[in-house]
Amino acid sequence: MNTRVAILVSLGFLAIGLSAKAQCPADFQNLGQVAATVAPGRYQQVQVTRELSLPDGIQIDESYHQKSIQAASDGGASDMSAAQIPAGFHLVPGGQVGGWWSISNPELKQIPAIGKEAGHWMFRIELYANSGGRSPALVESAQARSVWVQICAKTRH
Hints:
- There is one protein chain.
- By secondary structure, this protein is α+β, with helices and mostly antiparallel strands.
- The chain has one domain.
- The strands form two sheets. It has a three-stranded antiparallel β-sheet with strand order 1-6-3, with no helix packed on it. Strands 2-5-4 form a three-stranded antiparallel β-sheet, with no helix packed on it.
- A hairpin with an 8-residue loop joins strand 4 and strand 5.
- The chain starts with a helix and ends with a strand.
């Protein structure tokens, strides 16, 4: 009986963890996800800047400010704080277990109109992931390490 209870409790926590992965808070618009993946093997890394165009006509509620963020995994490094996230945005970062990851330098940029092409807003962020020099078992798994960020916006209605 105790084994069954332990299994049910474990499955419950797993379900909660999976449902919480990379989801925007209630009342936020999910703008999408940006990601980067490291090639398999020891000491592999990727450092890139990813961009996401905002939908035309979106009205960001700039009164919202994210209070906290885990901008790096254990073993990763980032000096990013929640105060650096543009007003009205909420970031949900994550990475694959077994490698190090971090995010930094989030910014909102206005791209000017060029000729007949209308101007628009772009969210930009730097991503870093590293396979590390960890155990040979991780290298043999040939599993790529990655980092991702779900970008959410608090909109005005």
